[in-house]
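Researcher: Next entry: Acetolactate synthase small subunit (Pararhodobacter zhoushanensis).
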Amino acid sequence: MSPLHISQGSSKHSAYELRDPYAEVIESHTLAVIVDNEPGVLARVIGLFSGRGYNIESLTVAETDHKGHRSRITIVTTGTPQVIDQIKAQLGRIVPVHEVHDLTVEGSAVERELALLKVSGKGDARIEALRLAEIFRANVVDSTLESFVFEMTGAPSKIDAFAELMRPLGLSEIARTGVAALARGA
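Model: Predicted structure:
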């Protein structure tokens, strides 16, 4: 028998199975944070992220309760499970924060984003851009002889896919609102 032969009963593994069992998986989480709508609150929340080197992939904020003077901050962030837990705990300790919800783990959620995409082109590229916009249900909100501005809402992955298809057709600018998300159900 060759010295490289490993029997099925051996505790050794194939080189294809070598992985670091202690390596942490980076996850993306959507957090909904209910805060007092007062000056400086958003800066404090952002300061928590920047001060600790946490990344924000998407950020949206707007007042949601005029009488109670409350705003909702929706943050999409990435990190290991331990980092996400730290972020949630630290957000909860900020005084004007009333609630912190991790929509990624609390059940299914609806996530949508709005994007405006400017596509410049002529001839067949314009025709193809219009055809793809129809498939993706993007609306033309501005048109000139040299460009279109498309408006699109949907999951961030849908907007990413549309933008990638528009790049070779002349995508010249894109503006995105960031993710707005709500938990499904009652």
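Model: Note for the record: Confidence is low (pLDDT under 50) at residues 1-14.
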